[in-house]
Structure formats: structure tokens, C-alpha cells
Amino acid sequence: MPKAYSNSTLSDVAREANVSVSTASRVLNGLAEKYRISRSTAQLVRESADKLGFRPSQVARSLRLKRTGLLGIVVPDLSNPFFSSIARAVTVSAEAEGFSAILADSGGAVGKEKTLIDQLTTRSVEGLIVCPVGLNFEHLETVHQQGMPLVVVDRCKANSSMVQVTSDHIAGTRQAMKLLLGNGHRHIGVLQGIAGTLPCDQRLQGVQEALTEVGARLDSAMIAGDQFTYESGYTSARKLLTTNPQITALFAMSTPNAFGAYQAAIELGLRVPDDLSLICFDDVAFADFMQVPLTTVSQDVPELGRLAASLVTQQLVHGKVPAQKTHTIPVTLLTRASVGKTSPS
Amino acid sequence: MPKAYSNSTLSDVAREANVSVSTASRVLNGLAEKYRISRSTAQLVRESADKLGFRPSQVARSLRLKRTGLLGIVVPDLSNPFFSSIARAVTVSAEAEGFSAILADSGGAVGKEKTLIDQLTTRSVEGLIVCPVGLNFEHLETVHQQGMPLVVVDRCKANSSMVQVTSDHIAGTRQAMKLLLGNGHRHIGVLQGIAGTLPCDQRLQGVQEALTEVGARLDSAMIAGDQFTYESGYTSARKLLTTNPQITALFAMSTPNAFGAYQAAIELGLRVPDDLSLICFDDVAFADFMQVPLTTVSQDVPELGRLAASLVTQQLVHGKVPAQKTHTIPVTLLTRASVGKTSPS
DNA sequence: ATGAAAGCGCTAACAT
DNA sequence: ATGTTAGCGCTTTCAT
């Protein structure tokens, strides 16, 4: 019975089979044909390898071949379903192409993100998929310019030469706004995430565009928030709703933002959707079982990850440099119960 | 301005500094003192390294030192918040101890799990944290017996010599059952997950024990289900509720199970908690915003991951072999709204 | 206080 | 059809 995991090396196998290491290497790498190695020798080598439970050292191969088959993936928070879903898609896609992925969690800190990417390059990952914190891209640009295949997901950078994958924030937001506006809402508050990040900026732009089309404009007093978190949603919704009592609808940039807003609404005695409509970007699991099922703009999260992974593996295995820099994934409006019509006044 | 990422090697640095590679290596590894290398030489080496943007190759180091600083983590489904939360805790803890983690998703297939672990060992990971599918442990036992530091999380194996970390399923279930029984429920249906896995078996045992204490017993006709999924919960709840109309409460083994059950209840015209009480193991994000906030037995998921990671890193960096084989993490009953009293009959 | 050289396990160019 | 050998980039023993 061969040991399943051993520390025997190629030279052990060669010795056992009475052949040279090159012959052993060739056979074990399926190059027997090409080198016209006799069937009997090949067979012998394979048996020896089997007997010794030979496992080729990827480390040694990597050093020799200068290819590690390693990808790095960094996200701001893996406990956030949005990012874990991306991480899953990346891992699975990478695996299918023969790559393994080293996972890193930046905790939303740019400094940490930088350190992690540094470590990953030091480990000779062949490609990088990163969901950046989104405010500083210098370290990403640098590593990209040095020739590292790199794909940025979600919090992209405007005007960048890096390959980027993101949802269609503008179209998604416009759909959401269209629903709100079509239902008579004219005083719409915006709960924003991290200002300056592309998802945030583009959603803001979508709001503006939609408003412009109906001859309105976005008052900066109607915008609040600074994180994609529950707390930010709660605090900013409270602020907005007390300062601007004329608000009939809230557009939240994330699900946690929306839940925070919902809580704020309850505390202020506002019923959703009767007194206040609520819509948000991102989707929740089990949204249908919520007190008020949220109407959302749902992103195709696995597709973001899948595409990002494929963009780097295609480049790695087939040398296909992505023709397009910016890849935009469509989103879907999921109409549930949290948006209502304004009462005719 | 030094290049941030380059491909210059140690010998490049040595040449630049007019010293030997050994000296360069020593200085750059902080061994200058120990080898009594002159301050000026050391300084020169550092400057050269800086100038060339030298980044030591971890793969070369790994080959030489036979230490990769790599951990493997495999889970059945990273898009499940339970597992992504574990993965996060593991990654972060590992990182803090100087390790990186390769992430792998088995998709709940034992065969895949086996292949992945095989690949990971081939990549010379120094330790393994695995949330197994939970039905077959041979491959895990094997790799463990070969001396690989390995910690099993969640779906553990009874009577194993492997190091295992899991929640206190029995105590948690008994707490849940105590609540149900205290509220007068005597006809309690059980929605189980993957039969044969330890979490499933122990929860079943907890149900039995609690029932025995009040002089009742668990009828096998009151158990249904075969996965920890929504569908399994839905199907088995429908079956149980139609076959046994006397049921007043359902104990679900997972949150998705519980949501499936909730849907089934709605369709059967049963109100929760008035007509049917519902309680489940695992917790949901935003449970408070559910139509009927679920009463749950909440696991300390991050702690499961943290402990597992620490168990392997402690062994790796300090040679501390875990004294205990089985590590049980306490759980907490979170009383919300889905459990009611039976109507006096 | 520093250097030369072996060798970790593998692949591939260059023999024969 | 198979073997010899250099070398990937690093650490460390042994010299000096």
C-alpha cells in the first residue's frame, strides 16, 4: 500500500526505477511519448512513483519553472456576503483553470491592503484579484505597471489603465430612481457609502441624472452617510429624516445602509412603505422574509468574481490580455414591498 | 526611487554591494549582529537592496527552509455566511502569526474535498483547517496520521484522534428544547440537516435527552430532512406538518432549514408563532428585521475559526501539540419572536 | 568579519 | 531511448 503523502523525491523514484531523474521527470509529466521512452521504462517509473507515494514538490517546480499557479485575492471584509461570494467565485474559477488562490482580508484598511499585496507578490502569485478599499490605488497601479496581471473588482478607479470589473451602478440606480419617481416621489434622500469610491460616485451620478430628466436636481442636503454599514445608514437616515421632513423616499447604497434606515424610520414613527419608501443597491438573502421585503437593485455578484478570475487566468494561460479595460455587469431591479406611491396631495 | 516590485535577486544585491551572497543574506535576515558584520557593510547591503527594490523570493526560501508559511483552509461552501465567517477568522489569525492561507471550496463533495487536500499538501501547506463535508474522514485521518497539523471544524468525527473544534450542539439543542417544552410544546418536529454528520447527530441527541427528561421520546416519524438547505427545510416541513397535524413546534437544524419551514407553514396557513413555533440552530444577520424574528441558538462562529487557526499555528511556531483533542465552543440562545406558548387544551 | 560552496527538488538544454 | 548537468534563489556549514 503506497503511502498517500510522503516525502520521497524525484530522485528517489529514479533510483527505485533504475533510471535517471530526467527520465523519471519526463514520464511523470506525461512526456514519455514525446521523448519516445519505452513503454516498459515508463511503466516501471510509474510503479516506482506509486510505490513510494511520490508527490512532486510544487515549491521546487515553482522555483524552476517560475510559475507558482498561485493567485492572490484580497477583499475588505470576507464576512460580508458580497465579498465572500466574490471570493468563492474566484476560488472556484481559479481552481478550474489549475490555480490555487491565497485569500487575504484587508479589513477595509488601505495600509493593510498594501502590505498584503506586498506579501502576495513576495509569494510569487501570478495574478491578483482585488476588491480594494477604494480610495487609494497607487499601490495597485504600481504593481500593475510592473506587469502583474491584476483585476480590480467593485470599488474601481475612474480613469485607470487597470482592468476593472464592476456592476452597472449608473443604470441600476437609474432604474431604482425611475421606480421612485414614477411612484410620485420627488423628495428623495440618499444614504451613501464611502464617498469617493466609484460605486458611491456612480450611484450618486445615477441619482442626479434621473433627477435631471424630470427637471429636478440633487440637493446636497439630501445626501448623508460615509460607510456602507448599518450604523452609517442608521445615523444618516435619522439625520436626513429629521432635517428634511418632506422626504418620502430613501435610496440606500447598501443593504446594511437600508436596514439602518429602516430602524431609524421605525424609531421616528414612520411606516415603510406607507410613510416612507425604501430602496437599495445590493440584495439580501431571504429578503422575502423581511418585515417589509426590500425592493433592491441586485448585482450578479458571482459573475463579478467569475469574470475577474477568468480575465486573469486567460491572460496567464493563453496570454490573452483583456481587450477591454472596463467590464460592466448588468444589474436587476427586484421589486418587492418597500416602495410605495406618494399620497396625492 | 527604488522599484517597489522587481526581480532582482540576492546575488544582484550582493554584487551591487560588493559583498558575498552570504553576507547579503545575513544582513537582510537581521543576522548582522550575530555574525558581527560591520555596521558599514550592513548599511551598504541594505541600501543596495533598497536601491534594487529587492524582494526575497518566498518560493526559494521555502525550498531551502522547508517551510512555506502556508496554511490550507477548505470549506464546503464559501457563499454560506457560516463558512465565510470561519474562513475570515482563519485568514486573519493566520496572517497575524505570519502565515498565508490558501482557500479551497469543496462544494460539499467529498471527492472534491479529497482532491483539494491532495493539492494543498502538494503545495506544501504546513497546516490544514478543514470544515469537512462530514461523512467520510478517511482522507483527513490519513493526512493527519502522516503528521500534517490538521484541525477539523464544525462537522467533526466522533471517536477521532484528530483535533476538532465544534459548537456545543447538545447543550444548545437542550436549551432550545427547554424553551419549547417549557412553553408547553410536546409534539415537536425536527428538521434535520445531513444525517450522519456530527452536528446533526448531536442535535438529534440533544432533542432526545430533553424529551427523555420530561418522560417523552423522539418518534422517528417526527424527523425529516437531509440537507442544511432551504429546500430540504421546505420539503421536510411540509411533509411533517401534513403527516403530523398535531405538531405545534419545529426545531430546525439550520437557518435555511428554518426559512424553508417558515415558507411551508405560510403555505399551509399556519401562523408563526401562533399556530406553529419555530426555533433553529445558527443565526441570521438582520434577524430582528424578519417578519417573525427567529429565535435561534447562535454559534460563536468567528471563535471556531480563530481557535482552529491558533491550534495549528501554535503547533507550527511553538511546537505546542494541542493537549485537548476536542474543543467545544459554547452557544447562546437568542430569544426573539418565533416561539410561543401552546394554547391550553 | 566575510566568503565559497553545497544543496533544497525540480526541469530542460544538451549530450549520446 | 535515456543520461548528465546546470541552475532557479535562497540559507547555512565550513573555511579563513
Any overview of this molecule?
The structure is a homodimer of 345-residue chains. The N terminus of chain A is likely disordered. Chain A has twelve helices and twelve strands. The longest helix of chain A is centred in the C-terminal third of the chain and has 18 residues. The first copy, chain A, has 345 residues and is α/β, with parallel strands linked by helices. Helices cover 43% and strands 15% of the residues of chain A. In chain A, strands 2-1-3-4-5-11 form a six-stranded parallel beta sheet, with helices on both faces. Chain A has a six-stranded mixed beta sheet with strand order 7-6-8-9-10-12, sandwiched between helices. At the A-B interface, α4, α5, β2, α6 and α7 of A face α4, α5, β2, α6 and α7 of B. β2 of chain A pairs antiparallel with β2 of chain B, so a sheet runs across the interface.
Secondary structure elements and pairings:
Two copies of one chain form a homodimer.
Chain A: H1 10-17, H2 21-28, H3 39-52, H4 58-65, E1 70-75, H5 81-96, E2 100-105, H6 110-122, E3 127-130, H7 138-145, E4 150-153, E5 163-167, H8 169-182, E6 188-191, H9 198-213, E7 223-224, H10 230-243, E8 249-252, H11 255-267, E9 277-281, E10 295-299, H12 301-318, E11 326-329, E12 331-334
Parallel strand pairs in A: 1-2, 1-3, 3-4, 4-5, 5-11, 6-7, 6-8, 8-9, 9-10
Antiparallel strand pairs in A: 10-12
Chain A binds a DNA duplex (16 and 16 nucleotides) through α2 and α4.
Instruction: Determine the oligomeric state from the structure.
Output: homodimer
What structural category characterises the helix and strand content of chain A? alpha/beta
How many H/I helices of chain A? 12
Strand arrangement in the largest pleated sheet of chain A: 2-1-3-4-5-11
Largest interface: A-B, 55 and 55 residues
